[in-house]
C-alpha cells in the first residue's frame, strides 16, 4: 500500500491534496512514489529535465508545452502539490461525481477544466486566444518540414476560419470548446490512475 | 492489550501507534481478506472502476463484520448504567483499542478523537459526568458517534477514500434516499406529465437501489456487496478481455505502419485483406472439419475403390512433377477434389453422413459468406457519419486531436509524424478538389471520350477471350499441343488482367476526377473486365461439362452393359446366383470423365496461376524496378528516381479487385474442390506478409495522397456482387445437372439435392417429411416471396426518408452556423470603400496584435465577401486562400523523417524528436 512512500508524506498533506484534487489516499501515495522516482535531484521538487526523461513526453511534439503546464508561471521547480494539481486534470470523471450538487466549486477534472488544460497548451502567451502564429508553431512541430510554409499558413488560416465565430482571427476558449464539442474529452483526457 | 498504553497520553500514544501500524498492516489485511469471503460488506457507492478489487473491498468487509457486534454491545451497556459505568469506559477503551489496531494508518481526525476520549476516560469523574449528561439519548448518540468514527476511520485507513463518506454526507445521503422513497410513493399525485413522471420514477428507483444497500438499510446489504463485487469483477474481466481481444487482432501493427506511410487508402486494402483472411479461415474450418477430415479419417483409404485410385493408364506418369503441377495424377485422385469422395451414406463409427455434410457445407459456405458480407456492410454503414467528420471542423480536429499522447516509441512517433503529415495532405487535396472550376465542356468531352475508349477495350478483351475459348475447344481434340497451346486460356486471361488496368488508368487521366472517385471508376472498369473474362471462361466450362456429360452417359451405358454381361456369364459358368464383383483391380475399372473434378481442377489451376501472376508482378513490377531504380541511379544519364521509371505506387484498385475475384473463384470452385479453400487461406496468409513487405520496401506513397472513404463498403459491395455471381453457376449445377455416376459423394443419384430428400425420408420422423412437402408448395412460397418483396420495399422507403431528413437537418445546422458567422461579420463593415482600402493593405490575414482600428477590421472585412444568399456555401466561398501551394512538395512526401522542428518558442533547442533514418 505504498507504506514506504507514505511515511515520507505527511498525513495532513495527503488530506489536503485529497480535498483539492479528489485523488484517493492510495492514489496519492502511489503517485508520490512515482514523483520521487522521477525526482533525480532528490530535493522534493521536479525540474523540467526530470520530466523530459519520460519517453512519452520526450517524443511528443507538444511535450514541452505539457511539461510547461506543470510549472507555475515563472518557476522552474514543481513540488508534489503542484504535480498533483496538474495530474488531477486527468482524473476520470466518475459517475458519482456527475450527479453531485453543481453548487460546489467545479473539480479540476471537469470537462471544462480538461479543455482549458488543452487550450493552454496552444495558447502560449496566455491571452486566452489561440492566434494564427501560435497555430503555426504547433503545426510546424507536428508536421515538420514535410509541408511547405505556405501550405502550413493556409492550414492555420483554414483552422481559424472554421472555428472563429466572432471574427477576431483567433480562437478563443469558447470557440475551442465548440470545435471539440463532439470529442469525448471526458474519456480521452482521462488516465486510469491505479487505486 | 498493549493498545491501552497508547490512549494514556495523547501525543505519545499516537506515535507508538503509528509505529505499530506498519506491523499490524499485514495481519489486518490477511484477516480482512479472510473475512471478505463472508460478504456482508458495508458497501457504499457503486464503484465505477477499480484496479484492485480485493484490497478495496477488504476494509469495508471488515468494518461491516464488526459493526453489528459493536452496536449490540452498546445496547447492552446502555441498559445497565450506574455502577458499571466505570467498567464500561474500560470496555469502550478496549473496543477502541481493538478497532484501532484494525486501522492501518491513522488520520488526524481519529487521533484527535482518540486523544479526547482517552483523556476523558483518564479523567474518570469528568468522563462519568459527560456520560450521564448524555442520558437517554446515549444509545443513539453513541451509535452515531461510532458510525462517524468508523467512517472517519475508513476515510483514513481504507484504500477507496473517495468512496467513503463522512458523517454529514452519510446523513445527507440517507435523507436523499428517504426523499426519493417518498417521491416514489407519491408519484401518482404529482401534477406532472406521464413522461416526466416516468423518468423521475426511474431515476428515483435507481437512486434508492443504489444507495439503500450502501447505507446498510433496506433489503440485503450482503446482496448489495455481492453485487458491487461482481460488477467490479465483471468490469475488470471485460477490460481484460477487451485488451486481450485487441492484442489478438493480427497484423495490427503492420497495418498501422503501412497506414502511417501510405495513408488510409492503402491501409484500407490491407484491412480488407485481413477481413478476407478471417472469413476464409471460417470457411476453411467448415470445409476441413466437416468434409475433408472425416473423409480422411473414416472413409475408405486410397486404392480401395476405383474413384480413389489412379487409373492404370495414368499410373506411369502420376508422380511426374509436371503432371502434379497440372493437378492431375495423384492430385486428381486425392481428397482435394470432388471425385475422391465416396457416396456411402454414413461413414465411420459415428455414422457421419458425409454426402449430406458435403452438400450442406457447400451451401453453408455461401450462406455464411452472404451473411458476413452483408453484416459487415451494415456495420460499416452504421459507422459512417458518427465521427463528426462532416467537414465542419476538419482542420481544427486535425490540429488539436491528431497526436497520440500514448506514443512512447521513437519509431512509432516517426510513423505518427508521417501519418499526420499525410492526413493534412489528404485534406489539402480534398480542398483543392472543392475549389476547382474550369472548362466544363472540355471536361465533359474528355470524359465521354475516355468512356468510349474503355468500352472499346472491354469489348476487345471480351472478344479475345471468346476467340481463345473457341480455339481451345478445337485444341481439346488434338494431342500434339505445345505448352503454350495447352495453357493459352489462362495465359491470355492473366495477361489481360495485367495489361488492361494500366491502360484504363492512363485513359482515366483524361477524366481528371478526384482520386477517390477515380479509384471507384477504375475499380468499376476493371471489375467489368474481369467479370467478362470470368463469365466467358464459365461458358466455355459449361460447354466442356456438357460434352463430358454425354461422354459419361455412353461410358455409363457401356460399363453397365459390361457388368450385366459379366454377371450373366458368371452365373452361367459357375451356376451360382451369388453376385461376386468382377476380380478386377480398382485401377482397371472403366470410369466416366467425372466432370465435377474437371471443373474443380480448372478452378484450382486458375487460382494457382493467379497467385503466381500476382506474386511475380510484385516481384518484377515493384521489387526489380525498385532495385534497378535505386542502384542503377548511380550510373545513369538521367535521374531514375525522379524521372521516368521511378518507384512503383501501390495499385489499390488492382489489388482489391484481384482479391475480390480470387474470392469469387474460391466460392465457385470450393464445391468441386474442397481443397481450394485451404489453398486460398495459404495464399491470403502469405500475401499479407509479402505485400506488406513489398509495399514498405519498394513502393512510394501516391502522388496524390487521398483519404479512403470512411467505410470500405465499396469493396464490400463488389464482393457481394461477385458472391452473387459466383452463387449462380454453382447453384445451377447443383440443381439441374446430374452428378457423375461413379465419382463424388452424390454418385448414383439423379440430382445432388436428392441427398436431402433421402435424409428426410430415412432419418427424420415422417411428419417432418410431410411438413416439408407443405412448405415446398408453390402456394406457400409465392406469397412468402411477395411478402418479402413488400417488406424490402417498405424498409427501403423508410430508410430513404430517414436519410433525407438527416441530410436536411445537417444542412440546417450548417446554415445556422454560417448565418451566425455572417451576421456577426457583416455588422462590422458594410462600407464598400473601407473594404476596398483594406483589401489593399498588405498581410491582411496576419492580424497584428494591437493595431489601430483599420487593420483590426481587415480581418472582419474579408469574410464579408461571402454572398449573403449563399449561406450554405459560404464557407467554401471564403476560401480565397490557396491551401495548396503552387508547387506542392513533389512525391515521396514522407520518405524523409521529420527534422527537429523549427525554433519552437519553449522547446529545448532542437531536441531532434523525429529520429530514425528514412525507411527504405
Q: Report the major sheet of chain B.
A: 2 strands, parallel
Structural class of chain A: mainly alpha
Global shape of chain B: globular
| Number of strand segments of chain A | 4
Portion of residues within helices of chain A: 55-70%
The percent range for strand residues of chain B is under 5%
H/E element string of chain A?
HHHEHHHEHHHEHHEHH
Tally of individual helices of chain B: 30
- Give average pLDDT of chain B, whole number: 70
The number of strands of chain B is: 2
Secondary-structure class of chain B: mainly alpha
Helix content of chain B: 55-70%
Note the gap between the termini of chain B. Answer: 75 Å
Largest interface: A-B, 73 and 89 residues
Low-confidence stretches of chain A: 1-7
Overall pLDDT score of chain A = 78
Kindly list the characteristics that best describe this protein.
heterodimer, A: mainly alpha, 13 helices, 4 strands, disordered N terminus, B: 920 residues, mainly alpha, 30 helices, 2 strands
Short description:
The complex is a heterodimer of chains A (195) and B (920). Chain A is 57% helix and 4% strand.
What does this structure look like?
The complex is a heterodimer of chains A (195) and B (920). Chain A has 195 residues and is mainly α. Chain A contains 13 helices and 4 strands. Chain A has helices at residues 3-8, 11-21, 25-38, 48-52, 55-59, 63-70, 80-87, 95-98, 111-122, 132-143, 149-163, 173-179, 185-188, and strands at 45-46, 78-79, 129-130, 171-172. Chain A has a two-stranded antiparallel sheet. Chain A has a two-stranded antiparallel sheet with strand order 3-4. In chain A, α10 (132-143) packs across α11 (149-163). The longest helix of chain A is centred in the C-terminal third of the chain and has 15 residues, at 149-163. Mean pLDDT of chain A is 78; it is low at 1-7. With 920 residues, chain B is mainly alpha-helical. In chain B, 69% of the residues lie in helices and 0% in strands. Chain B is built from 30 helices and 2 strands. Chain B has helices at residues 3-8, 10-36, 53-79, 85-102, 108-123, 125-134, 138-157, 167-186, 194-214, 221-248, 252-298, 312-315, 321-325, 354-383, 394-401, 410-435, 440-475, 483-486, 488-508, 515-574, 595-631, 652-670, 675-698, 713-736, 754-763, 766-775, 778-828, 832-840, 853-861, 874-877; strands spanning 648-649, 699-700. In chain B, strands 1-2 form a two-stranded parallel sheet. In chain B, α11 packs antiparallel against α23 and α19 (488-508) packs antiparallel against α20 (515-574). Chain B is globular, with a radius of gyration of 41 Å. Chain B starts with a helix and ends in a 43-residue tail after the last helix. Residues 1-164, 385-389 and 844-920 of chain B have low confidence and may be disordered. Chains A and B meet through α2, α5, α6, α10 and α11 of A and α15, α16 and α27 of B.
